[in-house]
Amino acid sequence: MSVDAVTVRKIAHLARIKVNDADVPHLQQELNAILTFVEQLSAVDIEGVEPLTSVMPMPMAKREDVVTDGGIPDAIVANAPVSEDRFFVVPKVVE
Amino acid sequence: MNTHVKPSKLIKGATGDWEVIIGLEVHAQVTSRSKLFSGASTLFGAEPNTNVSLVDAAMPGMLPVINAECVAQAVRTGLGLQAQINLRSVFDRKNYFYPDLPQGYQISQYKSPIVGEGTVIVDVSPTEQIEVGIERLHLEQDAGKSLHDQSATDSFVDLNRSGVALMEIVSKPDMRSADEARAYVSKLRTILRYLGTCDGNMEQGSLRADVNVSVRRPGEPFGTRCEIKNVNSIRFIGQAIETEARRQIAILEDGGSIDQETRLFDPGKGETRSMRSKEEAHDYRYFPDPDLLPLEFDQAYVDELASALPELPDAKKSRFMKDYGLPAYDAGVLVADKETADYYEAAVNYGGTKRDPKLVANWVTGDVAAYANSVGLAVAQTHLTPAQIATLVDLISEQTISGKIAKDVLAILISEEKEGDPRAIVEARGLKQVTDTGAIEAAVDAIISANPDKVAQAQAKPTMLGWFVGQVMKQTGGKANPQAVNELLKAKLGI
Asked: What distance in Å separates residue A22's CA from the closest CA in chain B?
């Protein structure tokens, strides 16, 4: 498996990362190096083996349905570049 | 899947009939105190960013911990939809960018949802019932809310809703008309409310639907579908389907083809339009969320939840038909709202004595419902109590008052004596039906002797009897027993 220049641009766009044209060949090479490295895994026979989504052989911890958090609007927006009346303010996004 | 084509459902195009194929994805907000993966409150209408924890704001290093009650609610809902409950399910990340999604992904379930296939039985009309298949139900997080009208250049983001638990309930493409889709959503909402797993409040966004619509010639394979996003009322769901079906038929009949796309319904303009920006977003790059272990429970847990479920609408309807001898339609109307059904039963069995169930049903679904409707309330929310309705019905059954006087008594209960006892009202206002034949006879004689011309007419044309009945009732203030009046009049007029 390998990626071409178009795919690199698409991945960058989906991740909202601005990539200059000059950087594309370099990134393409890096991504392909990673993919080649990971490719080694396909040498392993996984016939009949369940996909492993976690290495923890334990049941997932659950929370009681109790309100224990919130009420900190000032802290929530504290790091926002722009906020107003405890709203985050972002450049206009409209459909 | 319904493969049988119902001719009554077809839409007439310029070049022949078309069949509309509808599938719905309903997003139902789980009823819980706190969010799916955090301890922040789910209460509606709080000040901006107040019901937000650092987890919901996706601050670095925060980890999700699942709310056990949300899991139980999803399982209860699955059971109510007669669906397969999956003892093991997995949470995935659905990646996309939007300012009201601070994580940059929504935690959802993709390949392994908590609930699999099920069925909903839907009454489309008093005479038509359909089955709609459920494809799956999964748990996921809601996003925040963006406000676009606060400023010309900026959008304001409130994360109060961010992280609230949603159940996405996906139907099979089993609906063939806007009526069927509306009836399905109504039924789904009734089931959720019975279960107490979602309040079904569409105005507050607790229940929203994405509507998939395609059209085809009867008997042909499915056409290309369009998805209409985020329709937030049952009425709009119907309108959106009809508008979109017409749009697709017009394109196809002009020799065009349908592009698979996401559209928005604009109720003001009565049109659907393309949401171009969503095209690319379909590349969600799902993968299992490494912050969460698989969701696992055993059958005993499911059985315990099943044993504690309330009686559901279909079961209640059958019971009403069996125990109270109600027609399917009346039973269906009564059980559509759980509180109305409870109200009805309380009235039928008031005071430990059972009264005519059909008569009580007529009052509850008739005059009482009409009044409730006129003041914008559900039957059980009105000030009229089951005891008052029960007593009113008793008074009719005992022949103490006629059905007509009962309506007058109801009007008094509605406007003048809100907490009044119907029996006391009848007594105090002298509304008791006159069954004393002597008194009725006197009134009958008086009318007959005063109207010799009408007597002659009535003898020639017996339908004139109604006029005499009316006069006698007027003379007795509506209190004469109508049956006694009829009999006496017939005897005296010789008809």
From this structure: 24
Q: Is residue A28 part of a domain?
A: yes
Cβ–Cβ below 8 Å for B148 and A85 = no
**Domain extent for A29:** 5-42
With beta carbons less than 8 A apart as the criterion, state whether B260 and B224 touch. yes
How many residues does the structure list for chain B? 495
Give the 3-state secondary structure of residue B303: helix
Q: List phi, psi (to 5°) of B271.
A: -145, 160
Asked if the model's pLDDT at residue B301 lies above 80, the reply is yes
Query: What length is written for chain A?
Result: 95
Half-sphere CA count of A76, side-chain side, radius 13 A: 30
The alpha carbon of residue B293 is apart from the nearest alpha carbon of chain A, in Å, by 5
Residue A20 in domain: yes
Q: Flag whether the ipTM exceeds 0.90.
A: no
For residue A71, which residues of chain B lie inside 8 Å, CB to CB? 50
Cβ of B158 within 8 Å of Cβ of A60? The answer is no
Q: Between B47 and A53, whose confidence is greater?
A: B47
Q: What is the CA radius of gyration of chain A?
A: 22
Number of domains in chain A: 1
**DSSP letters for B215-247:** EE-TTSPP---EEEEEE-SHHHHHHHHHHHHHH
Residue A24 lies in a domain: yes
- Cβ-Cβ contacts under 8 Å for B134 (sequence gap 6 or more): B81, B83, B115, B117, B118, B119, B120, B169, B170, B171, B172
Distant-in-sequence, close-in-space partners of B461: CB < 8 Å, separation ≥ 6: none
Whether A66 sits inside 8 A of B154 (CB atoms) is no
A67 contact B CB<8A: yes
| pLDDT exceeds cutoff 80 at B437 | no
Compute the count of residue pairs across chains A and B with CB atoms less than 8 Å apart.
139
Residue B2 pLDDT level (bands cut at 50, 70, 90): very low
| Pairwise CB contact (< 8 Å): B148 & A93 | yes
What DSSP state is assigned to residue B367? I
**Tokens for B430?**
């002298």
Any domain includes A48:
no
- For the entire predicted model, the pTM comes to 0.85
Distance CA B97, CA B100 (A): 9
Average pLDDT, chain B: 92
Task: For domain B437-493, give the CATH number.
Answer: 1.10.10
Report chain A residues whose CB lies below 8 A from the CB of B53: 69-70, 72
The DSSP secondary-structure symbol of B81 reads T
Q: Of all helices (H) and strands (E), which one includes residue B92?
A: strand B92-95
pLDDT in tens, B342-364: 999 999 999 988 899 999 999 99
Min Cα distance A65 → chain B (Å) is 6
